[in-house]
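Changelog excerpt

This revision adds worked examples to the README so contributors can see how folded entries look when concatenated. The first example is reproduced verbatim below.
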Amino acid sequence: MRTFVWLSAACITFAAPAWAADSVDLTLVLVSDVSRSIDDGEFKLEKDGYASAFTSKQVIEAIQGGNIGAIAVAYVEFASSFEVRTVLDWQVIHDQASAQEFADKLVGAPRSFWGRTAISSGIDRAVQLLAESGFEAQRRVIDVCGDGTNNAGRDVSEARDDAVGAGITINGLAIINDHPVSWTYAHVQPPGGLPNYYRQNVTGGPASFVLEVHDFHTFGEAMTRKLVTEIAAQDVPVRLTAAE
């Protein structure tokens, strides 16, 4: 009996650090639209914006201000329903060095696709990643970033509802194309506007929100505000333009 008790205590002693190492304040999947309506220059601005946001002082302070002081992040790119790729698997970010490592990997990864826009497939991949992450987290969030409506794959509201039903919050960053070409107009300028489309069809869950940005050059600032909101539950404006 003493041997059993000793072994049980030893298992508890050695298991505790492993559980602690897998505990984070937030698990976050970045789901980024790389469909054909986003050109290479805009794609580069997106990637640079992600990098500047994750390495910003505001985001690092928000991460370190959590109960555990760490978040786990994965990055997914999507275009059409059969064009979905987990570009960066889970990485824990807890300080400037780990944030810079994540940013460097993100910037260095080549573009995945050029097809249509299956937001639903991006959400479905993110849900799968969250289910299989292995992390203990109080909050699970999917960040959807894109410039158009869902025009491939299953109905995006169904994917959203499945994710929300699993206890996941989906937030959105709607990139507004103010000068679309004729064949993309209905896709990037839906009735009521893209932010409203995101609110009605894409985002959901506790405290979900949509941030609107009108200039790829301000993408980094918008993403910084978005991350701080998700990590530290701060207020954020619903619209960000180059003039702000």
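The second example, added in the same revision:
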Amino acid sequence: MIALMDAAISELQKPFLDDDQIRSSRAIMGLDTQLIDDGTYFVVKHDGVLAGCGGWSRRTTMYGGDQLPVRNAALLDPATDAARIRAMYTHPDFVRRGVGRLILSLCERAAKAEGFRRADLAATMAGEPLYRACGYQPAEKFVDDRGGAPVPILMMSKTL
């Protein structure tokens, strides 16, 4: 999965970010293994090849991988909080083939089955078009510079 994530960050962000921002993205993005431990992470393969991965969370952390020291594993309340869509990556060889949309729909269905009525996510500029097409609405744009260079992030939300 790490190779897929690196390829997605390196290739799919090129139209939106410069080289320093892509390096910074690698530092702030990635897999939070809490998603795997919670059983809320999905992997899609095509003919045995990893095509994409992504998940959702019932925990407070919005985004970021294991390498980030500031994560919050507190459980969200489905009655008042939004589920988190997290760590969505599609291998560049499989973009625009429905992989991201499939993973997103699996996440939304699973979160809804646990009582969540809304989902929030932190979109990269490369991911924003997919999320808009799937009904997510933009909320707040900000910059994350924890990796050294400023990386634009767009908070988005959807009613499930």
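Reviewer comment on example two: The chain has a mean pLDDT of 96. The chain has one domain: 2-159.
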